[in-house]
Amino acid sequence: MDDDDEQSPCEGCKYILQRTWECVQFWTPLSVTFLILWLFFRPDRFHPRIDSGVLAALHLADGNATDHQRQLLYDLAVDLSFRNAHRRLSIRYLDIAATAFYGDTKLGPADDALPAPFRQGPKNTTVLHPSFRGAVEVDSGTAAELEREIAEGTVHVKVSVALTLKYKVWLIRDVYFYKYGCWLWFPPPANATPAVFDAGTRCWAVK
Questions:
Q1: Per-domain residue ranges for the chain?
Q2: What is the pLDDT of residue 43?
């Protein structure tokens, strides 16, 4: 038997292993680079803000709806901003929802549907203006908590923001869903004079 024929299977294996190793050497740095870029640019660092708010009403209606419930009247408007801080990447907002809460009591979603979908370019800020007006029945514990906060001179309201975002890094597109809590504090509105929140606050991701 020819010596070349005896060595050909080994030579073939060596060739396959060599080509495989060359592919690994070529793709591993690219894969690591892509992973680093993806971890850096993905929208985990994205946080909305409430720049300001006006609380025109947050008080209990006169009289009792029942022995155990009162009616809470509310009128809140906020400036809600979204900042895309990246220099080259865009964000597409597929859906936006905002809901106001007093404690665990849902005051209601924004009166007007927030605009979506829309695209936000790099280094860009978009400001929306959701407002919440209406009345809701609350239990005696919530009514007592509100009366206590009014007496102490500060009432606390939370705006919950839910976002569905589409994010693109190179050829990869992915959809993310996030929920944020934005906590606001106001002096109690009185004598038809709205209370103003102008400190600005960052919204934090919640589960």
A1: 44-205
A2: 55
